[in-house]
Amino acid sequence: MSSPQALLEQHPNRPLLSKTLHDLGIEWLCYEHPPLYTCDEADALGLKRDGTRIKNLFLRDNYGRAHFLLLTHAENQVDLKSLSRQLNLSRLGFASSERLMRYLKVKPGCVSGLSLFNDENRSVELWIDHALWCDAELWQCHPFDNHLTWVLKKADLVRFWTHLGYEPKLIELPTF
C-alpha cells in the first residue's frame, strides 16, 4: 500500500503502466523506499529487495540524433568511448535531463526499462548488457518514480517491450 506522500508524487502515466502490465498478465513485487537517484544511494541505505539491481543509462550520440537506454549491472562502470568505437557510433554521452524528460518523460534517477512506455515515437533504442541478460531473471525497475521499485521477471519485461514494439539489442559491454 502506498503512503499518502507517494500518491501525491505519482507519475501521471503510472496507472496506465500498471493497467498495461496487468492486461499483459504481468505481475510484479513492489517496494516503497526513500527516493533513490543513484545505485550508490541504494547501497548506502542497505535496502533489501528481491531481484537484480540495474544501472539504467540514457545515452545519446554526439549529434543528439540517436538515443539509447542501456541496462547493465548496477556495479558496472561502462567505457562509453570504447562502446562508441565498438558500435561504430559517433561519441556516446549521457543525455541531458531535458532530453530524458522529452523522450522518456521521467526525471533523472527515475529511468528504467519501464520508461520506454513513455517513448511515444519509439525514438529510443534499447540496449542490454549481455552479462545482465544471462545472469538475471528478476529485474529491479523504477515505475517512473524513484521512491518505488518494482521487481519483474525478465520474460515478462521482454513481453512488455515486445508489446511496445521494442527488440532489445544485447551488447558485450566494455567496462573499466
UniProtKB/TrEMBL annotation:
Residues 33-160 form the YbaK/aminoacyl-tRNA synthetase-associated domain. Belongs to the PRORSD1 family. It comes from Pseudoalteromonas xiamenensis. PANTHER family: PROLYL-TRNA SYNTHETASE ASSOCIATED DOMAIN-CONTAINING PROTEIN 1-RELATED, YBAK DOMAIN-CONTAINING PROTEIN. GO terms for molecular function: aminoacyl-tRNA deacylase activity. This is Prolyl-tRNA synthetase associated domain-containing protein. CDD domains: PrdX_deacylase.
